[in-house]
């Protein structure tokens, strides 16, 4: 009887071992790998308002400036054309104030990188003015918080008096980045 109990116990132990080994032989893992490719946010900085400044003429002419686009929060623009009229004499000036809005969901640093001049539309590639000079009131990059606005004043001043009709073009390029400029 003792021997029979030992044999049964041994068989039960062997069966338990065999069962344990059988389960241990089936193992594995499930893995989820992933990759996210995100596109850079578009440059969502726009002109949303234009205000003409008062022109100052040396003679009886009064310089004027207008914008070719009606700007608003619902009608923003990334590119506009300022049209200046009635400039004639050295010292004539006119200015315009433009409101810029940052619609990105991060702060943007916007700066005036270049002011170029040209004699025909689309050829404003010279850094040297001919009859007039364009300046802005921005001397460094401006931080525009997300959702906020900033204004830039653009001033056009005649450097030479015109004895004949003259047409010249200019381009003010404002560039923006989400990275704060190093001092």
Task: Give a quick summary of the entry.
The protein has 183 residues and is mainly β. It has one helix and nine strands; from the N terminus they run αβββββββββ.
Shape: rod-shaped
Termini gap: 95 Å
**Whole-number mean pLDDT:** 90
> Mind summarizing the main beta sheet?
4 strands, antiparallel
Tally the helices: what do you get?
1
Strand content: 25-35%
Give the H and E element order: HEEEEEEEEE
User: How does the helix and strand content classify structurally?
Assistant: mainly beta
Whole-angstrom Rg: 36 Å
Binned, the helix content reads 10-25%
Strand arrangement across the biggest beta sheet: 1-4-8-6
Q: How many E strands?
A: 9
Low-confidence stretches: none
